[in-house]
Amino acid sequence: MNDTAVRVGVDIGGTFTDVVLEYGGEAFSAKVLTTPTAPEDAILDGIGQVLAKASLSAKDISVIIHGTTLATNALIERRGANTALITTQGFRDVIEMRSESRFEQYDLNLVLPKPLISRAHRHTLAERIGANGQVLKSLDPAEVEALAEQIEQRGYDSVAVGLIHSYMNPRHEELVRGILLARMPELSVSISSEVSPQMREFERFNTVCANAYVKPLMKSYLDRLVSRLNDMGANCPVFMMHSGGGIISLESASEFPVRLVESGPAGGAIFAAHIAARYGIDAALSFDMGGTTAKICLIKDQTPKTSTTFEVARTYRFKKGSGMPISIPVIEMVEIGAGGGSLAHIDSLQQIRVGPESAGSQPGPACYQQGGERPAVTDADLLLGRLDPDNFAGGSIKLSSERSASAVEQHVGTALGLDQTTAAFGISEVVDENMANATRVHAVENGEDLSGFTMIAFGGAAPLHAGRLCEKLGIERLLVPPGAGVGSAIGFLRAAFSFEATRSTYMRLSAYDPGAVQNVLKELAQEAEAFVRSCDTTSPLTYECKAYMRFVGQGWEIPVVLSEADYEASDRSAIMARFETAYRALFGRTVEGLDIEVTSWSARVSTPVPPVAQIETVSADNEAVSDVKRPIYDPIGQKFDEAAVVERTALNAGVAVAGPAVIVESETSIIVPASFEAVMQPDGCLLLGRLESNPQTEALS
What we know:
It is built from 18 helices and 37 strands. By secondary structure, it is an alpha+beta fold.
């Protein structure tokens, strides 16, 4: 990595916008409140702050890498463009009928989420492509012309085109797009054969609808951002982080904005993988807790797990299946409404509930003194002594304990007959248990046992809650890296330029055709390479191919990484062996006597990532001394304990801080529970390990 380059990472979250500048081996960061109506305002503010800290000007910036929740929020809040869907006759209601799966099996009054595009805005064409790509009914251009006239008259800003089996033959979709743009050159058009060329029409149609829905919004935002950056003198390349954990050009991001959904959390997973590689950790749990959500991701062999589908905007207590399925390559993680701004309330059963509703940046938690009246997790943390009201966010936001106490007592304490401390502890314990439960389920779904994992915690709120989460999950080691409060933005600066192209081409291993496999993977590699070369024209490239496979009769497939020898060999035994190994790792056994089928293929092309310097962990050789104490609530003893307050910058390698303690820095605070000890490592990471001799350790087992 070039230390003379000035590289800036920017992450827009629901509550805070994080900016990190790296130059000359040093890092400078800023954390500012997100400005929802004009997100670029917060970015410019943050960039101005880090430039001032580094004594640089905007013209010195070499590159900006950006991730944003704007696309995600537009889908959740239904703030997208006036969008139409054009589909095959007979498939108009696919996005409303969804699939046969019920996310709440025994709820007789189950209400399905509303489709992104209502029925009145869905149009059909009398055409048909078969499952093998053959044209069963030709598309009549005159019919498309007539439909284009309707689209123009109704004033749509964007159109999604999703025709049946277009992933096998995109000719009809391309013809529709051509006719629409010939009549309306300024119209935004998305076709499913480019956005998501994969089987399963519900997921594919929904994905192209989502892309079309946010495309005008994202293009407008990115154009404004570049213009404002140029005005301030930053005439540098700007790239975007995509959901698969790589970097793409602004042009690609504007054309396929659905790829930006979960771009911020993807940066966090890359950050955690980088830390895992530095310490040689093969099994890590990435824990990213910000102001609005908490994200949990499994990192195996220093690589985040990936998937080809995920859901946004889950409507039913974050249950799987209750949201919008998006069919694109993505880093696989679980995301729940558990952040510092998540609001607490009492439900009809007189139980404390926290989230998914968030106070966001406006008005924010009650303690922000910006008009918020309901208690958030940050209010509970403040009352439990975990936060310093005078030094929150580097002192840029002064917190009011009185406002927190009033909100917690009014909305939780009074209803349950609890004092403010117990009510605050209840809020904190509920949100911690929500995160622990989500983590357990995610681990089980991926066939993992968390007992041997190391947690890597980052995000503004994660270091406050990570120790308690480790206690609940039985995790023995916790790493809190430097810059944890702005971890996702740092992750952007660690990511490679990369793109993963996918396509559904069905094949059974009993009829394995190596020539056909080579052709489809070659085409996918060329497609992915074109995206990468639009960002980086000189770096060497690496290639990774996958097959998505299952036993015949199963509903879902698993990813299987292939070597070049696998798909060039005429014998199917090599690819079968890889599938059985991957299947056995997930489910413990294989299924005898069934054929195996491949439903989709993918090729990922990446630029190389700079080698990571290995770190040897050091043990404690002396104890930190602090004359500063403050009471912090102990969830095990359920009482306040006097805890040492230590500045992170005052710790050298090998210095230990035994719990209970709080280690403070400008962007967050690390709570060291009584059952843990933190030891500063040579690279600035804090390694928290369980104290075997602590009597509270036995109480946890």
